[in-house]
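Sequence and structure are no longer studied apart. As an example, we show below a sequence and the C-alpha cells encoding its fold:
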Amino acid sequence: MSKKIAVLGCGWLGLPLAIRLVDLGYTVHGSTTSPEKLKVLLSKGIVPFHIRITEEGIDETHTFLKSAQTLIVNIPPGLRGKKTGNYVAKIRHLVTALKDTSIQNVLFISSTSVYGDSKEVITEKTNLRPQTESGKQLAEAENLLQCEPFKTTVLRFGGLIGPERHPVTHLSGKTDLPNPDSPVNLIHLDDCIGVIETILTKNVWDTIINAVYPNHPTRKEYYTVMAQKKALPVPLFVPGNQATGKIIRPQYLLENLGYSFKRDIHL
C-alpha cells in the first residue's frame, strides 16, 4: 500500500477525507482552486497545491502527483440547473497529465445519476441510462478513465448528507412537491469517508461500487421527519402514490467488502 496519496479537490468531502488519510499515516497532497484555502490545508497536515482544471487545460501537476501511486479525483461536474460546461474535456486534460507519472490507481468519485430514472432496483451491473447533462458527462468521464492503463475504481455516491449539507433545507416549506412515495438514496459524509478508507485498505481497484445507505424511506416520510427534527417548516407533497424513483443497492459494498455503515441516514 502506497503511503502517498493525491486528493484532487479538497472541498466538502475532499478536505475531511484528506484529514482522515493524514490521521491514518498517509502523506497527502491536496488540491484546491482557492488560494486562500492553501493555509487551511497546510494547517491540517496536508501538502497544499493550487490547481485549476478548465476546458482549455490544467495547471502544472507534476509536483502534485510526484511519487504518489494513488489519485482520488473529487471534482464534481457542477452542471446542475442551467449551468453548462464541458466536464469531459477537463477529465481528458487530467488523463493527459497522468501519463508518465507514478500513478497506478485512480479512485473516481462519481454519482448514481449515471443510472438515470427508473423504477427498478439498481446494482453495479445495471446499464447506464443517464438523463441529466451532469449524469451523461459523468458516465463519459468514467469510461475515459476506465480505458486507461492505470486501474480505475469508480465510486458512485447517492445523495450526500452531513454537516451543513442536507436536501431538506432546500425542500423545507415548499408545496406541491412530486413523488411522495419515491425512495431516497442517500449517504452520510462519515460513510463516504469510511467507504473510501475501505477501498484503500483492501486495495479494491478496477471495479465499480455503488455507495448508498441500504435503507430507502419514501421522500415524504424522510423529509417530513427531517424537517421536524431540524425545526423547519415541513415540505408538502402532492397526495397519492407516485413512486417513480429507483432504489440503489450497494451490492458490492455489502457482499464483497462486508462494509458496515456508520451513520443511519435518519440521524
